[in-house]
Design a protein that fits this description.
The structure is a homodimer. Chain A is built from 15 helices and 26 strands. Chain A is of the alpha+beta class. Chain A has three domains: 53-98 and 298-370 and 481-533, FAD/NAD(P)-binding domain (3-Layer(bba) Sandwich), CATH 3.50.50.60; 104-134 and 153-163 and 283-288 and 372-471, Polyamine Oxidase, Chain A, domain 2 (Alpha-Beta Complex), CATH 3.90.660.10; 175-268, de novo design (two linked rop proteins) (Up-down Bundle). Chains A, B: This is Amino acid oxidase.
């Protein structure tokens, strides 16, 4: 999820040489020939082929019996994909529901946390709260599963020009809208670069043509004046209006002139802009209609409810050489299940505590995943004041408060009620909240949100539900930070005897369902290949 | 719709003075006190109060009889709002349906243009084509009407990081995705400004603190290296991947290193970036679920179908001093309607040709609206290849081809079929297409689209329908460019005797439904005030 840059010096040097002499056309054509340029024909679908029943034709073999530990996305996908070829899969899920961190809370849902705190959600009908993942990028394999499973999708509003930015520590006493903040930052950036360029400060880097094109771009990008106006940024209607243009001669009331350059940079609003450039966060983003858990629900339905044992806590995993024995506790009773193979698709730090005979190296590797805390609160309001009063239809407000982000709902526009995510934070901020009672969490989130949204943030509240992933039994964390490239990490990519591992923690898209899906596919492919090879 | 900047020198000078000494906090507080800063409590709702039946209580008066010319958004809204107070309204609409330019085409719809060309749309069930307006900004009063009328809305995908940019005239031979183009342009812009800043070229404009903050912003904004790397932009994962990160040790395949700076600016991809900053175009944008014409349909239902006469072409308007007489042709027959007032809500250039006794000044003013041509084509495909093959779920591709824009659908994600808007152009480009037969238009659009999308752009096509607004009878144009501030424009803001004028052409939001709504409200308020005053 971080923004890593990658240097490919030799290719780059070659391309520069082509580019300099041939212009953009030659450059792009060359890139295409080298497989570097985007091509309309290029497929981004991973080269996964699901196991099929016909794979066993003429082999005399058939799908094996597999026990899957954990009914999150990775576990469900493992059973789903293996099931296509007739594998006999059983999922053991320790919680009372499938989905794992893909958790959607609705009215009537009850959760008991590690501290024994019980929360019963009392959201209204039609109101839901995605306590775990909330968004999907277009390129993610999650989209393919939604299509394949018939889970309808809609836009997740990951950015909104009318959402707020509020940096209290920078001295802001009022929030500023994204559109306003962007106009000002881009305006001043353009002014500065135009001045430097026009004064010749960059002549060693720019040709005359570059310079003219850059200046032309900056005038458009920053809405700045021309040379005669010393390229100054003095404001633009992109900042927004206090009263938008109307009938007759009503040109509207512009929001006003921008604060001085120093104040704009001191307010540090620009720190949030690059979020939307992220390969994983850029709009458009999507969500299942009706709640993120439509995905695990559809997977569970496809797998078959009879293959899923809920409230089944794994207590031991033993590789017997020719089979695997898994013992588990369900309803106060110990049971055992024997299978040809096992896929462990529960969090690594929990699997590390399950007694097994897979070796100390496996335990050490499993225990070597640093775990991140994260939490969210869902606030149901009796009115959609953010839409009617503030004209914010979805999107995210960014703050430097300990609530971090506030999400406005991407569904139910213009409805009677609605649910705002009042905080979505990680690390120390998340632990601050997870240490509080649900009532205290709500109070803390509300008391901060009113700074941005005014009194209705408190007065229109109906009910709330907060989820602390570090205090969630059988999960105990939001996501991990794999130590890629270490022997321990690589060890878990191989089966330990008859036991395979799967989960987003064994992928390069940790904390995304995409990671869980591709890791499950990887385990499925390896297992199926082994069974096919006999 | 243009990006005008407005200078408010005295306020600005004062604010600068405050800002310099007080920092961002003081600055924003001062702006708030001056009514310039965004305020959470500030309402952006126009100060319109709909006429009510109770307005006539104790006055001895009642709603008058009003004939409305034109059943577009302005005409429908006029009748809708006046109807709330019991006015007896009749709408005369020359076309066979209401909505005016708010036109949604579905399978079975038939349109005959000014040249006698007949098109019968054969789109599949559930596929629709918004030939006119397609999007709504959050602040627009159009949103309020959707809420009031119970028209459900959903996100209109006005931008997408995965849509393409293709500038053929700049020598591009392959399209580039927005995300890639943005990463490269912002990367190089950041590199250049960081270099100039660090070299002291901007010391006269920046304090030491400004400089540090700016450099920090640029590193985040452009994903550039630090001082040790001479602030160089050498690529970023924001450009995208040819293969996205996967399981195990699959870090993905970055799209490659960026083209050289000169090529990036020569490709002119940056010219499209500021579109999304526009006060009227910035995401999030919205559309009615099921087609834009859900708005006029809901308005017509609220007005009452018995008050709307279709295929009724106005042939004369005569102000008799105490009443207005309107003659119209319907089904080959001349009819007359007499009312207390008339609201002319048809295009000004058409009203200018209707015989009337309102004076030569009115005719001259009505004829003084330059008219813009615009056209769109809807292309129905048997598969949603843009989603499955190119991972584009909505959004807009920008080109310098005469098709200008390509819109991917904002509805029906993951469905079987889908409709792409194959061109949306204006002016000379629109007239180029409107001069062709529907078959020729389709062929021209397809032959260009394949350059961007490959063969499926042709091979998957099922059917198409194109709409040329300059060739549409009773409309004859897409929108106008009012000569704001001229005596002629101002003349039409006043009633000509008992005849009022309304339409987006009498607003500062031409070509937007918002303009039609607010202009109608303005006419309604003036008329109601007059009736109330007796």
């Amino acid at each position: 999820m971080s923004d890593q840059t990658q240097s490919m010096v030799s290719r780059r040097g070659f391309l520069r040489a082509v580019g300099v002499s041939g212009g953009a056309g030659a450059m792009l054509a060359t890139m295409g020939a080298m497989g570097l340029a985007p091509s309309a024909a290029a497929s981004v679908t991973p080269a996964f082929r699901a196991p099929e029943r016909s794979d066993f034709t003429l082999t005399g073999r058939s799908g094996a019996k597999v026990v899957v530990l954990g009914g999150g996305i990775a576990g469900l996908t493992t059973a789903y994909e293996l099931g296509k070829a007739g594998y006999d899969c059983t999922i053991l899920e320790a919680r009372h529901r499938v989905g794992g961190r893909n958790l959607t809370i609705r009215g009537g849902d009850v959760e008991t946390d590690l501290d024994g705190r019980i929360q019963r959600a009392s959201f209204s009908d039609g109101v839901y709260f995605n306590a775990g993942p909330g968004r999907i990028a277009q390129w993610m394999v999650t989209m393919d599963y939604c299509r394949e499973l018939g889970v309808p999708i809609e836009v997740f509003t990951n950015q909104n020009a009318d959402a707020w930015i509020y940096n209290e520590s920078a001295g802001m006493t009022e929030p500023v809208r994204y559109r306003t903040a962007k106009a000002d930052v881009y305006g001043y950036v353009s002014e500065l670069l135009a001045k430097a360029t026009d004064q010749g400060a960059l002549d060693s880097r720019l040709t005359t043509e570059d310079r003219d094109r850059l200046l032309s771009f900056l005038q458009s990008f920053g809405a700045i004046g021309g040379r005669a106006g010393d390229w100054a940024y003095t404001g633009t209607n992109r900042r927004g209006f206090s009263g938008y243009p109307g009938a007759g001669n009503d040109v509207g009331s512009l929001l006003g002139t921008p604060p001085p350059l120093s104040d704009v940079f001191a307010s540090n609003v620009g720190r949030y802009f690059s979020f939307e450039f992220g390969y994983d966060q850029a709009m458009l983003m999507f969500q299942p209609v009706g709640g993120m858990d439509q995905i695990p629900r559809a997977l569970a339905k496809a797998v078959g409810q009879h293959r899923i044992r809920l409230n089944a806590e794994v207590t031991a995993v033993t590789d017997r050489g020719s089979r695997v024995e898994v013992t588990y506790r369900q309803g106060g009773r110990q049971s055992q299940i024997t299978a040809d193979y096992c896929v462990a698709a529960l969090p690594p730090h929990l699997m590390a505590r399950v007694p097994h005979n897979l070796g100390a190296g496996v335990t050490a590797a499993l225990a070597d995943f640093p775990v991140t805390a994260s939490g969210k609160i869902g606030l149901e309001y009796r009115s959609r004041w953010w839409e009617t009063d503030q004209r914010i239809y979805g999107g995210i407000t960014e703050t430097d408060l300990d609530l971090s982000h506030i999400w406005y709902p991407s569904y139910g526009f213009h409805g009677k009620r609605g649910l705002v995510v009042g905080y979505y934070n990680t690390g120390a901020n998340a632990r601050t909240y997870s240490g509080l009672t649900p009532e205290q969490r709500s109070e803390r989130a509300i008391s901060q949100g009113v700074k941005i949204h005014g009194d209705k943030y408190r007065s229109e509240l109906v009910t709330s539900y907060s989820h602390a992933w570090d205090r969630t039994r059988y999960i105990e964390g939001a996501w991990t930070s794999p130590r890629y490239g270490t022997p321990g990490y690589n060890l878990l990519l191989q089966p330990a005897g008859r036991v395979y591992f799967a989960g987003d923690w064994l992928s390069h898209e940790v904390a995304w369902q995409h990671g869980a899906f591709v890791a499950a596919r990887s385990a499925v492919s390896a297992l199926h290949q082994r069974v096919m090879a006999g």
